Amino acid sequence: MKIEQLNLYHLRMPLRTAFETSFGREESRDCLLIEALADGLVGYGECVADRDPGYSYETAQTAWHILRDFIGPAILNQEIPTPEALQRKMSFVKGHQMAKAGLEMALWDLLGKSQGRSLQQMLGGQRAAVDVGVSVGLQESPAALVKAVEGYLNDGYRRIKIKIKPGRDTADTQAVRAAFPNIRLQVDANSAYTLDTAEALLPLDDLDLLLIEQPLDEDDLWDHSLLQKRFRTPLCLDESILSARHARQALEMGSCRIINIKAGRVGGLSQARAIHDLCVEASVPVWCGGMLETGVGRASNLALASLPGFILPGDISASARYYLEDITHEVFTLNPDSTITVPTGPGLGVTLNWPALERAAQARCTIP
Ligand code: OSB
Ligand code: MG
Fold it and tell me: Strands (DSSP E) along the chain, which ranges?
């Protein structure tokens, strides 16, 4: 398969409700939509880099630069038979996993469309629907948080993740646990603590949490291994795992007992599957993280989360939890058993709502 042209769209999507984490508050979500043309087919990929470098050093602007000025020119009009071959062609660029992952997703979509196979089939996913939960941002007070959680439980979500940060950790989590003693509950610090300040999190160990996600900095694998020794609750790494090598080293060091897999963060679905395979081999549970994706990225997450090692519910919520208007015609809804059905059409199995996309597009470019 030879990609003849790439079109980049920088999108800004207003969120239904603001999303606040330890690294900031966002009213809208930026991302890139990547359109790849080959053999009369069109493939789509979502690059999950956001407007600000709060979660990762990558931003929508850096991904735009890397794709337009380096990766695009290097891969156009060349025979690229597989995602792995694309990765080799992109390997002259250090890092920039989200930029690479967005393009790799578009290639998967093209390959699926040319072979008449769904992404789920190509990846080896099995479940028709995947268990999902919801990630609830920081709220004004513990009482407001309990109210927000109650709303999502009423919507049918059976697993809740709450965001924490220093000063907004134990009291918030205790309030949710007291209000809902039996729900599956987990917390995400988005690297807001140090080994010292994480002492404040020790009371969380008594709240029967599924996991504590990314308490320390992304480059703190060693300190996570020291911190894990102080907790019975499994630590789970998100930001720290940028490759299968990081995953292996984190497990060898005991930095975590669970891994959150995001294809965008690790450079693409091929690396995401490699991390999944490694964790299955090591009997380490994984789950699919989210980056407030549009319908394009959500379709990809659902296919990935249908692989057998994804035994914990993913941060993959219904379309309506995120956006008033999404860029795909397909709308993902929550089934009564807190699952979302995996798309079955060729490639990602989604089609674009162009008027909605036009409304969200801030900039576009064509390569070459
Ligand atoms: O840390 O998991 C995270 C969203 C943006 C950036 C980082 C994270 C998140 C979420 C939301 O928690 C997950 C989702 O519903 O997409
Ligand atoms: Mg996280």
Answer: 5-21, 24-38, 41-47, 129-131, 134-136, 159-163, 184-188, 212-213, 235-237, 258-261, 286-288, 339-341, 361-367
Q: State the distance from the centre of ligand 1 to the C-alpha of 41, rounded, in angstroms.
A: 31
Residue 264's pLDDT band, with cuts at 50, 70 and 90, is very high
Q: What is the mean pLDDT of residues 131-159?
A: 98
Tokens coding 161: 């993740």
CB 238 near ligand 1, within 6 Å: yes
pLDDT at 292: 98
Domains of the chain: 5-116+351-367 (3.30.390.10), 121-341 (3.20.20.120)
Neighbours of 329 (CB within 10 A): 12
The pLDDT > 90 percentage for the chain reads: 99
Q: How far is the CA of 276 from the centre of ligand 2 (A)?
A: 17
Question: What DSSP character marks residue 98?
Answer: H
pLDDT at 145: 98
- Other CB atoms within a 10 A radius of the CB of residue 40 amount to 8
